[in-house]
């Protein structure tokens, strides 16, 4: 009996040692997994911005959101969060080890809605709202001046097998037609932004996007502006290359060449027609001026919507936005060209303008020039705000005010959505 007892005891000890070894190995696996998550290249503390200003009671007096560099940094981080929301979904990450939340939590925002593409179930956008409870825990009793109540952030193309097909489909849609209105994502983004603007007021809402997402943000923001709803818009590396634009440029050049040839062969009939046309134009102008003045006095559409564009000259996808509109240089306001909303005018006398920020770096690789990370970099010495109006911006925004003027007089004068 004693021998049997001894053997049993020895067996139990061996089992205990094996169990202890397993427990230790499991703990090592957990620790190793935790370290891998901490060292993930997309973790906020690894690739996020450095030396950020933490929100505290001082923001009640002097908000860091008033600083353009800080605002650009935060909004770019929100877009990065949308990329990571989709990656977290694809990689089945749980809330405790998800990467995305750390890209909005430090700024006292919270996720309230994700925008889903019904074609593949992917996340392409998100609504982030000011988190009052998180802010109050840091003694920030009110929302800092300049901080939006809600931000609609839209990601660009994600080259992952689960969503790549639909992303590229929309890329090709823009390439062919220079429009994204036929996409499912456009409808979802527009309805979401309208709802948020109605809930918080358009002045308290912001829409932002990167690459393909910037294309959606531009067209969604412009659609709301046509209805008199002006939402702050930030566009990072917006797409500017399209077949439709190339054909239009060819047509414009052909038309310009024909006009030059035609001007070299004057005729008597043309001179008579020109005189009559000048007289008619003067009469129409005298009749139209009071109506246009009434529109201006009612605060409609004179440079109210001024999108912010962030482009890199080494990025062939968005660099066309930096091409100056030289056709209107004589009418660009002369000495007032440095003013924010001054730019070439369309036929209705409405200013066409945008804030254009350009990075100029030599010998930069495309993935760096088109990447989102550059926009939260602390080195802003390469970032310059241009004082000329882009030819492409002028074309994009002229259609906004031209189409707006086609509405009924009551809708136009009130500046309200239809």
What would you say this structure looks like, in words?
- Helix 6 (184-200) packs across helix 7 (212-226).
- The chain has an 8-stranded mixed sheet with strand order 1-2-3-4-5-6-7-8, with helices on both faces.
- It is an alpha/beta fold and 418 residues long.
- 46% of the residues lie in helices and 11% in strands.
- A hairpin with a 6-residue loop joins strand 1 and strand 2 (123-130).
- The longest helix has 37 residues, at 2-38.
- The protein is globular, with a radius of gyration of 28 Å.
- The chain starts with a helix and ends with a helix.
- Residues 326-347 are annotated as: Disordered.
- Spans of at least 5 consecutive residues whose pLDDT stays below 50 are 1-8, 22-26, 28-33, 246-253, 284-302, 329-349, 404-418
Q: Hey, roughly how much beta strand do the residues contain? A: 5-15%
- Name the helicity range: 40-55%
What is the count of helical runs? 12
| Main sheet specs | 8 strands, mixed
Physical arrangement of strands within the biggest beta sheet = 1-2-3-4-5-6-7-8
Radius of gyration: 28 Å
Quote the distance from N terminus to C terminus: 95 Å
User: What string gives the helices and strands in order?
Assistant: HHHEEHEHHEHEHHEEHEHH
Mean pLDDT, to the nearest integer, reads 74
Number of strand elements: 8
What does the overall shape look like? globular
Q: What structural class do helix, strand and pairing data support?
A: alpha/beta
